[in-house]
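Query structure, 202 tokens:
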């Protein structure tokens, strides 16, 4: 199962931001998985130390000290985000490699296989009814896409959204074969698309 690393520090406390940055520096040092980091580890270490110094001054300092601390925090956040994006690109979802970088992994998404996906011709010409009987807990919605050339990743178009287990799609070309795929949204996560199901519209 593919997993990305979390690249956002903006919601972390200053203390956690330092801890997480330090974990990345240690994780990526002498790590053969990441030979060309976007931000040098020396730079990350220097910027981390600069932030710690300025954060200390800001505790009982002036508004200027607080401003300097906030600017240093933005640098810390930016370094973390850029490095995290590099890790995600390099790992291509490999959780073992991702975790070795020192970044935290995103929560693993459950992939719902939808073997029961099917479609039937509707009552009206040029319409089909898509059935998706998978019913995971905390389902928010089902997303539907259709295509006439599924091998082309850019050919998939919007077919609709529903919480119900069936959806009527209209205004299709009669005599043409369409492919349909469905994804479910669970806990605000979009789960991977199902294998396409094809039907000739009548």
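Result returned for the query:
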């Amino acid at each position: 199962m593919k997993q990305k690393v979390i690249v956002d520090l903006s919601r972390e406390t200053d203390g956690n931001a330092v801890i997480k940055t330090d974990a990345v520096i240690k994780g990526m040092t002498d790590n053969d998985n990441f030979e060309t980091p976007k931000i040098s580890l020396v730079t990350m270490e220097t910027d981390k130390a600069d932030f710690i110094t300025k954060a200390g001054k800001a505790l009982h300092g002036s508004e200027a000290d607080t401003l300097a601390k906030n600017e240093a925090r933005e640098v810390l956040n930016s370094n973390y985000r850029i490095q995290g994006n590099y890790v995600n690109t390099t790992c291509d979802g490999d959780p073992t490699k991702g975790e070795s970088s020192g970044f935290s992994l995103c929560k693993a998404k459950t992939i719902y296989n939808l073997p029961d996906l099917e479609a039937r011709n509707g009552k009206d010409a040029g319409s089909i009814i898509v059935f998706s009987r998978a019913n995971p807990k905390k389902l928010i919605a089902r997303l539907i896409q259709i295509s006439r050339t599924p091998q082309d990743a850019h050919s998939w178009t919007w077919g609709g959204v529903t919480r119900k287990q069936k959806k009527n799609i209209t205004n299709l070309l009669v005599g043409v074969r369409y492919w349909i795929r469905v994804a479910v949204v669970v806990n605000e996560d979009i789960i991977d698309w199902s294998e396409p199901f094809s039907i000739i519209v009548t």
